[in-house]
Amino acid sequence: MSDDRLSAFLDGELDDAEQRALEARLSHDGALAAELEAVRHSRQLVRGLGPVEPPADFVFAPSGGATDGLAEVVPLDRHRRRRGLLAVAAVTIFFLVLGFASGTRVADVVPPVDDLVDQHAAAAEAMPDAVVDGSFELMPEVEDIDDMGPAMPEMPMVAVYQADGIIQFLYDTDHGPVSVFRQEGTLDAGSLPSTEPMPTEAGMARYLVDAEREIIIIERDGVVFTVVGDLTNHDMVMTAADAVPATDRSVIEQIRRWFGQLT
Question: What residue segments make up the domains of the chain, in order of their start?
């Protein structure tokens, strides 16, 4: 599917029938969902580059087809398509200019779903701050730790655990605890157990359930988040998934990490 059509979807420019048809296709087409996420990501990166100052000798001239000194009038829909294509082109040019001499490929991540579900259950039973019996241990206070997990006033964070590069944020809700696990790296969705694509406020996610719990896995800027909660607590699980934070890395670092996913 063309990038301009996906850009129109992200901008809400499709009519109702087209919007519903594309949403239905995204629900079962993982490749298209990944393509949409790549377009969404490239647009975010370009927005972060800031305005570009024109060169001092830049002079506006009408298009070759205009007459009487009048500039060409471009229809709004064609302007929007050009805008989407220019965004992708700008990222591509930025790749070439940087050269990525010092860039490193981001490690692929496959969240250990079964282990994380077990850890969630153990931490929930040990609430609010008891030591759990397993590989995870309570994490000492770290500056800006609150910014590394979702910020949700209706869901207080009661404990933070860590093990082998995974950080667990444990939240309390009226209908039971919710865990958000954070791992640095790029999601290897193809190696996950059977999952379904799910749109969230934070981007396209992967969704699966076991006998008692639901799991939502989402990547943001080279960080993989796994949200775990009881099936009876669906609303709060979705709230946590919608609220996973974007990283505060520089634009260059974000592009390097994104480029690593494509090479």
Answer: 3-98, 109-242
- The predicted model scores a pTM of 0.58
Please report, for residues 55, 87, 174, 245, the alpha-carbon distance to residue 257 in angstroms, rounded to integers and kept in the order given. Answer: 30, 18, 38, 17
Alpha-carbon distance of 148 to 253, in angstroms, equals: 17
C-alpha span between 30 and 39 (Å, rounded): 14
Give pLDDT tens digits along the chain (263 positions): 666 787 888 888 888 888 888 888 877 777 777 777 777 777 766 665 556 566 555 555 555 554 455 555 555 555 555 555 555 555 555 555 444 444 445 578 899 999 999 999 999 988 876 777 778 888 877 656 767 888 887 888 888 899 988 999 999 988 899 999 999 988 988 888 888 999 988 888 999 998 889 999 999 888 999 999 999 999 999 999 999 987 655 444 555 554 454 44
Q: 136-143 contacts: CB < 8 A, separation 24 or more?
A: 136/161, 136/162, 136/163, 136/166, 136/168, 137/161, 137/162, 137/163, 139/167
